[in-house]
Structure formats: structure tokens, C-alpha cells
Amino acid sequence: MIRAYKFLMRPTVGQAVALTEMLQDHCSLYNGALQERRDAYRHGSKTSVKYGMQSAQLKDIRAFDPESQGRWSFSSQQATLRRLDKAFAAFFRRIKSGEAPGFPRFRGVGYFDTVDFPKDGDGCRWDSTPHDPVTRVRLQGVGHVKVNQHRAVVGKVKTVSVKREGKRWYVVLTAEQAPPEPLPVTGSVVGVDMGIASFLTDSNGQHIPNPCHGRRAAAKLEAAQQSLSRCKLRGSRRKKAVARVAALHRKVRRQRVDHAHKTALGLVRTHDVIAHEDLKIRNMSKAPAPKPDPGNPGTFLPNGAAAKAGLNRSIADAGWGVFLTILHAKAESAGREVIAVDPRNTSRQCPQCGHTAKENRPTQEKFHCIVCGHTAHADTVGALNVLRAGLARRKAQLA
Question: pTM for this structure?
């Protein structure tokens, strides 16, 4: 089992400068490799350049430019080239599947924030001074950097990554662990229905309110972004304004992740089997297609884009994808079972008689079956149907 740990680093002023230079030089390597691939395809009779060819050139690149490329870890530079190779692999995969291709682009210095070290001990060393009460990570070309280790790292460290977020620096570790002991069996099963009015409703009728962190911070974000828009490009005031906007977004993101952790932990501790909707969040948050006006060429009919934009904003603010990812990870560690079911008609099917109709849900909150007269909260009905479908799927898998 692989688990990730993220710790805040406390570099000195000189180490912070060295870390920034490391990101800049890796960004330069990434852009140079991308330019080589573009030139080879355009001017070399459609010749393709692969990762192995570019990795073989690293030795000559480091010898030619020892000041900016030769002082960093060789394996971390290989990881940067692999990142570019993965970008091209994803580009060709999207072409084959008919999606928007999204050709790999050049990275600006401010948009290249991570350097990976594929193996602990090769260009980096986690907890390099075990006899020192302060935890440190050693990075080639930077030195021993203090780390604010707020919890113990269990297992053997496999990879190390350095990440910049605004003015802060983080170290991200992946450790290989033995499977943990499962939590005691509770004998409880639950289905959950995710929404916007209520973040989560379970099959027992419990509603967890939506904290709406993004909406609460909207006024501050709007003021900060307006201040940013009035700053001159490449000015000192603009840098401060950018940092202010980034800090507000970072706070909202951390609040959203914290809420997801606490909600998922409560479910995992209480229930053995958790069924949820298999939501296609990306499809749900797509903008509506334009409607050309056949009577007036060049004009368009109303398509509800403004209302859909507000709904998309609420979906993004709820953070369903983050919550489901955390739920699956915690359930795996606790030995719980999580089942994803088809969400179609879960809020329109009567849990008493099984009749499915659009008219069964006259409002957002109310469910009233037009056949048997069963009345309940619509989200609770959805959670009950999700649980029923999840148990049926689990029974079929065990059979």
C-alpha cells in the first residue's frame, strides 16, 4: 500500500533562493525538451523524439552547462523529462478518443512548481540527520532543509517531491506500507446522496450541510481580483496582489479538503459498507451548447448559460470529487467497502413501490409518489435507492 505525506519546509533565505533556481532550471529543461520535439516533428520529416533519446542527452547537457543544469540531481532531471513524455502520451490518447487534444505547452517560471525525485537516496535523502531532533530533508544543490513534520511517516519512503505553493515550500513523500489493521466491524451499511443544498444525505435521514466555503469567500476574492486587475503588469504591486488572491484560494481549498476529511472519517468509522453515486462531475459541470437562431444568422437564442454557470460554480464549490477520493482512501485503510452505483433515477424511484417517474419529485426537497402516495425528503429517497442498488451490486459480485 502506498501512502503520501505532505510536510511544510522551513528553508533559510539562501535555501529558498536555491529552491527557486532549481525550479527555474528544471523549467528550462522542460521547455527545451518540448522545443526539441516540436522542431523534430516540423523540420525533420515528421521524426518523433522519445524520452530515451532526450534522457541520453542529459550527460552532455550537464557538461555543457554545469552552473544551471550540472548541479542538480540527474534522476530529478530524468523525472522532468518523463513528465513531458507523459504530457505527450496524454495528448495522443485524447486525439484517439476524440477529445480536445490540448497540445503540451511551454511552462512559465511561475507555472512550474514541482520537482520530483524518483528514489529516496538518489539526489535527496529524507530525514538525513536522524540524531538531530529537527527533521530535515537533504536536497542536492540545496542542502539540509528543516521540515515541519507534524506526524510520523510509516513505512519505507519511496519518492520525494518538492512543491512550491505561493511563498511556501512543501515536501511530498510517498511511502510503502503494510496493509493496516481494519477497524472493528459495526454491522452498519449506508447509502449517501450528494447534493448542493445539503452536502451529503445518508439513508438514515441525516443531512450534512454544505459549508459553501467558496461562496463565503466570494466577496473577499472579488475585491482581491479587482485590485489585481488594476495593477500594472510586472510591477511590485501586482506581485503582492497575485499573492493575496492565491492566499485566499489556498485557504478555501484547505477548508474544503478539511471538511471532506472529517465527513469521510465519520462515515468510515460508523459503517462497514458505503454506497454512493458514481457521479460524472466533469459532464455535470459542462457549459450548455449554444443555440443558433435560424431566423437571424449570426445570433443565438437563450440557452440558460447564466443559470448553468451558477450551478457549475456550486458544484465546484461542493468538492464532490475531492470527497470521494478521500473517502475511498480512508475506506481502504480501514478495511471498509465502498460501492459506486449508477445515479440515474435514484431520486425519482419510490422506495416503497418502486414506481419511477419525474412527477414523483415535484420540488427540489419533496418526494411524493403518484402511485402509492409515499412522502419523504427527496435526498433521503435518493440515498435509500443508492443503498439498495449498492447492496444488490455487492451481492452479485459475491455470487
Answer: 0.86
